[in-house]
Amino acid sequence: MKLEESVSNSNITAPLLPPEDPSPSPQNGSISGAVFNITTTMIGAGIMSIPATMKVLGIVPGLVVIVLVALITDVTVEFMLRYTSSGKSSTYAGMMAESFGSIGSLAVKICVIITNLGVLIIYFIILGDVLCGNESNGITHLGILQEWFGINWLTSRAFALLFVALFIMLPLVMLRRVDSLRYSSAISILLALVFVVICSSMAVSALLSGKSQTPRIVPDFSQVTVLDLFTTIPVFVTGFGFHVNVHPIRAELIKVEHMGLAARISLIICVAIYFAIGFFGYLLFGDSIMPDVLVNFDQNSHTSTGRLLNAIVRLSYALHLALVFPIMNYSLRANIDELIFSNKNKPPLASDTPRFVSLTLTLLALTYLVAVAIPNIWYFFQFLGSTTIVSTSFIFPAAIVLRDMHGISKTKDQVMAIVVIVLAVGTSGIAIWTNLNGSGDDQ
């Protein structure tokens, strides 16, 4: 009788079949890997525009804005993590679906697709400009490859970008787990630090030799207007917008509750890097700083030392962008797959090799072809990105708190959510209106 009871109990407690939906992403990701991937997501192409924002804002307001955007980012990420833990979904779109149904889910997917697709195309375009040069206002700027090897088909934009896509990007975008990108992300951060070190050393040298200009502490309203100050906000919002990668990175952590700590560490790192780049870049070039500080380094190449530093800065930046590409591609691919196959009984993308490979190759080929065929399309995506990034980073997380489908938000959370939405909509609206009216052209 005891033997029968033992057998019966074992049949109840030990299922004969494995779980129906095993996790496609083993939860063995580390905090350091999460920090590397989050930080890399934030330190993308926008870092070269930060010194120019210091020219508009001044040093002290610039630091205040960087810290303020970082704090708001921390708040909205905390909103997302809390509602993800209280709900049943493990994706951003799924979390929005729990609060706003299919419309909310679709809105997230469209915003992520527009933003990330535009960002990846922009990365390709910038890589092409750095390696193969470009033409602006009738002036031809040679790329690194053209300076070294002359102008021929080997140094053409189409061939150089194809080489980068096949031999640097393709092996990385074929990785099926986001945590597998932690090493390339660490190298990407290191390359950003190389730029900071070079820029700071040159700025200190110029300061000691009396060649640097005294940076403005506050805005100079004889050169800029109050509205012009708002045009700098999208630069920082775009820089801190890693929300689309919160769920993929969180899903692979050994302990998902460590995601909040990883996010805060990453934000501290990025605040330090952003301010260092902005301060030393502005200190080095002063009012001659360009919207893309790489142009300033190009102008500084009349000496052998200048040419060497110029080559190091541009090459490190190009490789940095190539290594940021896979982490942005990861969330783009996941959202496109979720959009196409959300209503179909399909296995997880990472475990479906034909679907994974075909979607990955299609996205890489599409971004490459668009960047080569329409190298000025990035202006269009910049406008769309300034609205969609604000939505995914600030508006959607705050809206989830106000909706409060799980009944977990407190009064202070709802007040903070309202403040976030008002700030996001107000600053973005003013920035877009100012840019469209061209008031910042004379900066």
TrEMBL record:
Residues 28-424 form the Amino acid transporter transmembrane domain. Pfam families: Aa_trans. Residues 1-13 have a biased composition (Polar residues). Keywords: Amino-acid transport, Membrane, Transmembrane, Transmembrane helix, Transport. InterPro entries: AA_transpt_TM. One of its GO terms (molecular function) is L-amino acid transmembrane transporter activity. It comes from the Eukaryota. One of its GO terms (biological process) is amino acid transmembrane transport. Its main location: membrane. It is found in: Membrane. This is Amino acid transporter transmembrane domain-containing protein. It comes from Glycine max. The lineage of its organism: Eukaryota, Viridiplantae, Streptophyta, Embryophyta, Tracheophyta.
